[in-house]
Amino acid sequence: MTIRVLVADDQAMVRAGFRMLLADEPDIEVVAEASDGLEAVAEAARTRPHVILMDIRMPELDGLEATRRITASDSDSRVLILTTFDLDEYVYRALRAGASGFVLKDDPPEQLIAAVRTVARGDALLSPSVTRRVIAQFARVRQQAPPKAVETLTARELEVFRLITRGYSNAEIGRELFISDTTVKTHVTRLLQKLELRDRAQAIVLAYQTGMFEPTVDG
Questions:
Q1: CATH architecture, range 136-209
Q2: Which residue of 46, 67, 113, 184 is most buried, as measured by CB atoms within 10 A?
Q3: Nearest-CA neighbor of 109 among 53, 44, 49, 43?
Q4: What's the pLDDT score for residue 45?
């Protein structure tokens, strides 16, 4: 499968740089560009990309609101936030808006390419350090009741859910629970389906909005 990418950034040079970088990857195709948030929303609807590289600071409509509109439209597109600012406020607000991960614009090229592939697979791109900050932020806000669907999760699915919220990868979850990567993936897929969540990022948001788990992260 070729990963279809939309690049949204108000700087033409930045867009051109990402297009050139991704052009060398046989499994990635840049299908559109956008210079502001409104254009990003329109292009996402028109081209239906798998991944949107979304700058936060753009005219007309910022990247956070554009992300919110795209994810609210029932789009299958995954949003990867591009930023020069590794700030807690943006991390928290972008996850609330429906983003699936973050990359810094000055990250190494291979890291950006890996991020696109990770998000395209339906995984979230959240490092343990980012997860810690998200947990701390959500621990300070008013909690809401968990959805009724939580009651349908098995004991093992709840264990996997808890480890997801602590920033564990599939491999780390497997080692912790002594199960295979394939089994972990099955549990993750099922719990996301039961809770009607897009990816791990939404799972983490749900867990800490509802106070399902203690607000701690390993490391």
A1: Orthogonal Bundle (1.10)
A2: 67
A3: 53
A4: 95
Could you give the CA distance from residue 39 to residue 27 in angstroms, rounded to a whole number? 25
Residue of 70, 102, 72, 100 whose CA lies nearest to 86: 102
68-106: pLDDT as tens digits: 999 998 678 999 988 776 666 677 788 888 898 888 888
Which CATH code, of 3.30.565.10, 1.10.287.130, 3.40.50.2300, 3.30.1490.190, is assigned to 3-125? 3.40.50.2300
The segments of the chain whose pLDDT lies below 50 read 217-219
Q: How many residues does the chain have?
A: 219
Angstrom distance (rounded) from CA 56 to CA 126: 17
Q: What is the pTM of this model?
A: 0.80
CATH 1.10.10.10 segments of the chain: 136-209
